[in-house]
Amino acid sequence: MLLIPCPNCGPRDETEFHYGGQAHVPYPENPNELTDTEWSRYLFYRENPKGIFAERWVHSTGCRQWFNMLRDTVSYDIQAVYPMGTRRPDLAAGPAVEAGTASTAADSTTTGAAAPSLSATSLAASTTRTAPEGATK
Fold this sequence. Notes:
The protein is built from two helices and seven strands; from the N terminus they run βββαββββα. It is α+β, with helices and mostly antiparallel strands and 137 residues long.
């Protein structure tokens, strides 16, 4: 579970927020002049990096304000939160506003207990099993 630092309300649970896609995607200057291929690339083609990624978020159950966030897509660590319309912060100087946290417990949101460990032996055993009798492919 992520603890997202809302710039207006402070740290809140991720269930209060909605993801808004990649940040800093400029709207085409003359959308009526775009071909279907160019328009589809604007609408659907987004980066999918492994690492730091600029995202748009809205605090939908709180202040209902949009903001940008720099988040590591591998570790889910929130590097920076900054207002809409501002430039992406330079992380060389450290986090811009506030950092968030992610829970490291495997199943901490439902039962409070960690999920069963997936050791190499249990994975190997599960991959060699055959389908139950009567199952179809």
